[in-house]
What we know:
- By secondary structure, the chain is mainly α.
- It has one domain (3-130).
- The protein has helices spanning 3-42, 47-57, 61-73, 78-85, 88-100, 105-130.
- The longest helix is centred in the first third of the chain and has 40 residues, at 3-42.
Amino acid sequence: MDSQxxxxxxxRLVDTLRRVTTAVQILPFxxxxxxxxxxxxxxxxxxxxxxxxxxxxxxSPVTIVAFLLLSxxxxxCKWHKTACILPMVPQAVSLTDYYIINLTIPEVWVANSLIIxxxxxxxxAAYKVFFK
Length: 132
């Protein structure tokens, strides 16, 4: 292999790593934005739509761990790690409601409101970090 081929291979590798890094940086924040929108409309849509939304946007803890590992490997900031963990918060509320105590409707609204505010603040912080 000559020097030109090595440089071309190295350039392709660096370009691929940049695209992967960009995707890993942005995806948790996009997902958080989608989660905010879904939480805002979740209680006002019919149950059938809720089931579809649950199916489409459920995030497994395994996926969260994978995001966190990628975040660590690519040396992302604390805001990125927070965005990776954020989808677990609504699941924690649901698990609490199902298995520990039954939340009343006002408590669910408060929990959803807090999740929306927390998510919005995270997105504002992310905007300041990435687009400042």
